[in-house]
Amino acid sequence: MTNTLHRYGKAPDFSDDYVVFAMPSKGNNDEGSLEKLKTFLTICARHNPSNMGASGQSSYRPSRSLNPGVHWSRDLSPDFKTVIDGVKKTGTAGAVFNSKEKAVACLQEVVDQDLGLSVNISTSVEGAKEAGEACGIHRHSVEYSLGFSDPHDRLPRGQLLELATMCGHGMVAFSFAQKMVDMVREGRRTPEQAVATLSRFCPCGVYNPSRAMRLIEAARTHQ
Amino acid sequence: MQIDPKKCVACSNCVPVCPMGAIYVDPAFNRATINYDECVECGTCFRGMSQEHLNPTLVRAVRGVAKLFRFRFDPEPDVCPTGAFVMEDLEWPRIARRVFSDPLVEHESTGITGRGTEEVKTNDVAQRVSVGAVGYVIAFGRPGTGVRFHQIQTMTMALAECGVMFEPKNPISHLMLDTRTGALKEDLLNEKILSAIVEIKTTTAEVERVLSTVMEVSGKIDTVVAVGVSTRCDENGEDDLLAPLLSELGYSFERAKTNMGLGRITNVQKEGQGDQHLASVR
């Protein structure tokens, strides 16, 4: 599962946020789906995604035995190969792209490969529709997000919501997003370091570092 | 979840990491401590933070010296320097917290990870929501607030009164004593989880009533509610039913999950199985 429906923002905010994911249906097309999911991820990797994940493993991930030396030289780049090699059980495999062009190019190749898995795009309503039409396919079904109902004012301001809701499972805490914003504003971390740190908390690999970078860059000069 | 006090060095890195704000440094004995009632067993602290395995005594000594001279100790913010978190074995009903909060735990009722079902993500194959039908995913507790089962029950009982059909394979439906009343198992009611999803299905004629019930109940329960509404598009990929209806009712929808219709049945079908799926449209 990836859970990307309720990312906070207006449609234009999702212009750099296209989540493309493939999923087998239990009892219908899950037999032999492991190799298909790997093929799907291999296709995604060719189109320069910002992040990807499957089987609970993201291209940005924490380490169980970190060498203290990394405090001064931590790897900030995504590791797609380990994600693809690490697909061990059937389920959702997804990648996030920072432009419609990349998402369309990826989708076109997925269409051409005819894997037989269900493929979804999570982004603005129109963005997904246009991406499909660019590949000559029509939408089958659509699930609209009606947003959050927060009558008790439990949620923070929009910028933190945008950063935190990019992990739909809620693994990125508001307080941690705020800490990363503060560290960048105080010059204690670069935006690249901050977004890599945030991305490591999303085990599905659909946290969008590109969008997070834009948000944190904006927050650096103006809270 | 527990923190081993012999290992914890009170660096406080884990404090902002907790989505529920359940971790704090207890000044009485200078160790990070978990508010056990607020912890939802999501595993973010244990799994999301990288772990070093440094000697706790050495780290405390270094931190003590730095603190004495008011030096800023500035470690990586997502690291537990001594690997102090311990994921314990849980028993019923507390184990429900982990099942609903840790995205890597698979639900027995659905056979998939996450808190919902395949929803319309595999609708091109499973035909779960047909033309003219409307699927709802009502999510509680996220982002960042959490929810207790008695709050979810307030919603499920109100929806049951509307006569809706609960998705049978959904984890919350699985915990219902009676889907006609929406009542949940009693020993669960005070357990807190990070989030849960209630899934129902109706016709388009019932959308206004169901959504107004959801919004009304949302105002009565102290958590966040997020609603997704789904339908099947026509053969041209258009939705001329649900989207106009939602707009007419005053709901805005900026984002969507869109099934591109590429799935098809590939499993070897047993005799008499799957005839209804063969009409799956590309």
List strands and helices in order, with pairings:
The complex is a heterodimer of chains A (223) and B (282).
Chain A: E1 18-23, H1 33-46, E2 51-54, E3 57-58, H2 80-85, E4 93-97, H3 100-113, E5 118-124, H4 125-134, E6 141-149, H5 158-164, H6 174-185, H7 191-199, H8 209-221
Antiparallel strand pairs in A: 1-4, 1-5, 2-3, 2-4
Helix pairs in contact in A: 1-3, 3-4, 6-7, 6-8, 7-8
Chain B: E1 2-3, E2 23-26, E3 31-34, H1 44-48, E4 50-51, H2 56-68, E5 79-80, E6 85-86, H3 95-101, H4 123-126, E7 133-140, E8 147-148, H5 149-161, E9 165-166, H6 171-174, E10 176-178, E11 183-184, E12 192-193, E13 196-203, H7 207-218, E14 225-232, H8 242-248, E15 255-259
Parallel strand pairs in B: 4-5
Antiparallel strand pairs in B: 1-6, 2-3, 7-13, 7-14, 8-12, 9-13, 10-11
Strand content of chain A: 5-15%
Beginning-to-end CA distance, first to last residue of chain B: 46 Å
E-strand count of chain A: 6
Tally of helical segments of chain A: 8
Quaternary status: heterodimer
Give the uncertain stretches of chain B in residue-range form. 274-282
Class by alpha and beta content of chain A = alpha+beta
Q: How can the largest sheet of chain B be summarized?
A: 4 strands, antiparallel
- Distance from N terminus to C terminus of chain A (CA atoms, Å) equals 33 Å
Find the structural class of chain B using helix and strand composition.
Answer: alpha+beta
Q: In sequence order, what are the helices and strands of chain A, one letter per element?
A: EHEEHEHEHEHHHH
Q: Give Rg of chain B in angstroms.
A: 23 Å
Give a written overview of the molecule.
The complex is a heterodimer of chains A (223) and B (282). Chain A has 223 residues and is of the alpha+beta class. Chain A has helices at 33-46, 80-85, 100-113, 125-134, 158-164, 174-185, 191-199, 209-221, and strands spanning 18-23, 51-54, 57-58, 93-97, 118-124, 141-149. A five-stranded antiparallel β-sheet of chain A has the order 3-2-4-1-5. Helix content of chain B is 23%, strand content 20%. Chain B has helices at 44-48, 56-68, 95-101, 123-126, 149-161, 171-174, 207-218, 242-248; strands spanning 2-3, 23-26, 31-34, 50-51, 79-80, 85-86, 133-140, 147-148, 165-166, 176-178, 183-184, 192-193, 196-203, 225-232, 255-259. A four-stranded antiparallel β-sheet of chain B has the order 9-13-7-14. A two-stranded antiparallel sheet of chain B has the order 1-6. Classes of the chains: A alpha+beta (223), B alpha+beta (282). At the A-B interface, helix 3, strand 5, helix 4, strand 6 and helix 6 of A face helix 1, strand 4, helix 4, strand 7 and helix 7 of B.
